[in-house]
Amino acid sequence: MRGGNESGSLDLGHWRTPRPRQRGRPSRNSSRGVFSVSPKPPVPSATTERARHAAPSPATGAPGPDPGAEPTGGSAEPTGGSGLIAVLAFTGIVVALMQTLLIPVIGRLPELLHTSLSNSTWAMTATLLSGAVATPIMGRLGDLYGKRRMILVSISTVVLGSLIAAATSQLLIVVAGRAVQGFAMGAIPLGISLMRDALPRERLGSALALMSSSIGVGGALGLPLAAYVAQHYSWHTLFYGAAALGAVSFVLVLVAVPESPVRAGGGFDYAGAAGLSLGLVTVLLPITKGGDWGWTSPLTLGLAAAGLAILALWGLLELRLRDPLVDLRTTVRRQVLLTHLTAITVGVSFYAMSLVLPQLLELPSATGYGLGQSLLVAGLAVAPMGVSMMLVSPLSARISAARGPKTSLILGLLVIGGAYAAAQGLMSAVWQVALISTLVGAGIGLAYSALPTLIMGAVDVSETGAANGLNTLMRSIGTSVSSAVLGTVLARNTTSFGGAEVPNMTGFRISFLIATGVVALGVLLAAFLPGAGRPATVRYRAAGSP
Q: Which PANTHER family match (predicted)?
């Protein structure tokens, strides 16, 4: 096992991380990531010794001390890391804004892009697909070539994609720009992994919680901001504003964030990256467009079957490689696998609120259940979700430190489920919607904060970028499934109003009921996660040993 056991705990006396690259020809034993160099074995460097102290603690996954050594974090000179935490959290929020940037104008996209409603949704779908592809690939590149370097590359795509989309109203160019924007999603798991390498252990728990929650904070806070801009300025201003935020974030990372000294061994798996990208796009495309194409149409079913076949072949390829893009043997460990599956349920529950509540707020009050609010008011009513996610991040870190991240995750899911159950009777006033969004945000903040801690407690320090990228992908898959399923529910439960079909209250209630059921499944999955027990010994054989 690489750096972790099924309880998420570590025997620090046996922790070993990849050394900096040495000249010579590497040889491997059966434990991936352990190197020797012929003809001389490498001498441990200061970087190696510093990285060795970055092993997670039994309860939280935060770095713990090596026995007999003074506790330190992953950086050479830990200074508290306040600037680094703030910059990386800001970067995560900026990246997450790209996901909700066009939601306030989604109903006007056919007019703005001079196309049909079905075609206009590609401006949303393109970002989702490219983000799903980018997260595991950028995570692996960060492990190999530097996490800060890949964060800068990711932020660059925000600026480039925004400028492409801002320059025109032609559908294909806007979709291309949105696809480029989506590649920025890789910055969030990279930031989580870089924090593990750079921060002192006493700061890591709360920092990971804040960074992990940034994806929801950015999405929630971006809604009222984007709604205000869309109401008072040209919709192209949304993209120019996104480019400006991306440029600020790039400069801040360049100035305030140091590069991680930790590197993985081996090379980049180009075939694996191509196979995973093709498989993900082929599977997610029918999920996101199945409502337009028809769920039983040959195109939808054919693409889904082809995507699953591609992913199966990709999995077989990854198992045969010495340096795969995704280490599937690590992925199927109980703690890692259950955390990924639970992340899907959290993604479903997150998007359910984002899809239902804005529509409920904006529908005319003449329908008998709509609240008749403007885009801006609707965004402000949902914004408390982001605020509560940010506020509960330190609480989640303390719970994880005291009781373990499993407890944090289950507690978060229970809060989400309780909020959705209460929403069945709390949809008749704006303050009720704001209350539900606050409670759901608190639960998602607790759950999101626990996910990377669970992952990093079970994988080697050199694989945290790829592992966190895959976990972020699982959340994206959850939002895609939620969009498809709940979108279909709302489309089939409608009322005629003003010559148009609008979602009715039955559709809203069924959507929340589905979300509650998915959260219950998440609680069940999380219950089977290993608890924080006695650390198991993790042994690595010396290079060349039998």
A: BLL0718 PROTEIN, MAJOR FACILITATOR SUPERFAMILY MULTIDRUG TRANSPORTER MFSC
